[in-house]
Design brief:
Distance between the termini: 82 Å
Number of strands: 0
Helix content: over 70%
Shape: elongated
Number of helices: 14
Radius of gyration: 31 Å
Order of helices and strands: HHHHHHHHHHHHHH
Largest sheet: none
């Protein structure tokens, strides 16, 4: 009895040559893509190493106040205040270090000065009245400063300075009851704090500075490209996988949009730090950092709209294959135009070139809106009666919402260019 041998292809055998070459190409490019993905994280990791080394250098410099006898004879045990200052105020970004250092300096001066006055006043009263005067002063200034900390604007910018004020005032006024030379003690401690502050500022601003303004600028620009890629990816997924039972939803696009939605707190912190930074590179003292927050809010709205397309992908009321194919080309052209607009806006901020939205981008967006209205009528409108075009209509309406948001976004980018002194495009 004869037997039939069925040859089962192993691995890549039996695969069409074109598909085989494409698969080999994807495999060969995989290390390159992974390298590009890791490049950004490696850069951030390198900055962490640089920051750690800078903190170590600052601590070594401030410890010389203890290690070198000539310096120790000048400052004595007060050298520990300089070490505490370096440990407390040295932050990752230069603007954060400068902000915290100035807050500490102002809080120390005000708290020490008022504490010395209160202690001198209590010493003049003498007797039991001295303790009562100190108690009243501690209560009034402590309560007033604590209430001030609850004011949103004060808490956002000067909370650390208020805390240092309360701490310094209480230390000075209470120690003034036992110390005879309170002014000399306050002067010595203040001088060592200033030494620590100067060392921090020197190392933070002059040795491989890490600017919050650069981080904010680069972070905002990268979101334009992320949104453009996500929009193109969602469009491709919708027209290719709309009727598949197992929809291949790209999680990378979704994660990019979700990261944009959670970027507001980070942006607010970076803006707060950037406002304290000195003039450096392409950013001046009066750079409109508030505009970055407004642009970020519009990008979050776009990210929300793009995520809503996920519902179109997973909707149970999917449009028929013929209906989708009939509007595929115009929808893809529209999405390509929207992605191009996002990249143009991002490039305008990257190169700090003025964006003439009224001349170029807004007319293009208006033409896109007109094309979307043509898609909705009349072919799609007739299919809405039998729920055939519900999913596609939802997709198109989401694109129309994106057009409206992009028009506002283009105006915000144009205002940023005007206020930030962006240069005109040579072409």
């Amino acid at each position: 009895m004869g037997s039939t041998v069925v040859v089962i292809p192993d691995g890549l055998e039996g695969v069409a040559p074109s598909k085989l070459e494409k698969k080999k190409f994807d495999i060969s490019c995989q290390p390159i893509f992974s390298f590009l993905r890791e490049k950004k994280s490696n850069k951030h990791g390198m900055r962490k190493v640089i920051h750690s080394i800078k903190v170590g250098v600052a601590l070594v410099l401030v410890c010389l106040l203890y290690l070198l006898d000539p310096l120790y004879k000048q400052v004595g045990e007060n050298a520990m205040w300089a070490i505490m200052t370096v440990v407390v105020i040295f932050e990752f970004f230069a603007g954060a270090t400068l902000r915290k250092g100035l807050n500490r300096g102002i809080g120390t001066i005000l708290g020490g000065g008022l504490g010395c006055l209160a202690a001198a006043f209590a010493q003049a009263i003498g007797g039991i009245g001295k303790a009562i005067a100190v108690g009243i002063a501690v209560f009034i200034f402590g309560a007033a400063a604590t209430y001030t900390r609850q004011v949103p604007n004060i808490k956002k910018k000067y909370d650390y300075g208020v805390v240092i004020f309360v701490l310094t005032f209480n230390l000075v006024v209470v120690s003034g009851l036992r110390a005879e030379q309170i002014l000399e003690l306050a002067r010595d401690r203040l001088s060592t704090i200033v030494m620590g502050f100067v060392i921090c500022i020197f190392v933070s601003l002059l040795v491989f500075p890490i600017w919050a303004s650069d981080e904010l600028h680069d972070s905002l620009v990268s979101r334009f490209e992320d949104l453009a890629c996500s929009l193109e990816g969602f469009c491709k997924e919708y027209f290719e996988n709309a009727n598949e039972k197992e929809k291949k939803f790209c999680s990378n696009f979704s994660s990019n949009c979700k990261s944009i939605l959670h970027s507001k707190i980070k942006d607010e912190s970076l803006v707060n730090f950037a406002r304290w930074e000195p003039w450096h590179g392409k950013f001046g003292f009066s750079h409109p950092w508030g505009k970055y927050l407004k642009i970020g809010e519009h990008l979050m709205v776009l990210a929300t709209t793009i995520l809503s397309l996920k519902g179109c992908l997973r909707s149970r009321t999917q449009s028929s294959e013929n209906l989708r194919q009939s509007v595929k080309e115009p929808c893809e052209a529209i999405v390509a135009s929207l992605a191009w607009t996002l990249r143009e806006l991002g490039e305008s901020i990257t190169k700090m070139i003025k964006c003439c939205s009224e001349e170029t981008l807004v007319p293009k967006l208006k033409s896109v809106r007109l094309e979307l209205s043509l898609i909705l009528t009349p072919k799609l409108g007739t299919n809405l009666e039998n729920t055939d075009g519900v999913g596609l209509a939802s997709f198109v309406y989401s694109l129309m919402e994106m057009v409206e948001t992009m028009e506002e976004l283009a105006k915000q980018v144009e205002e940023l260019g005007e206020l930030g002194g962006f240069h005109k495009n040579a072409s």
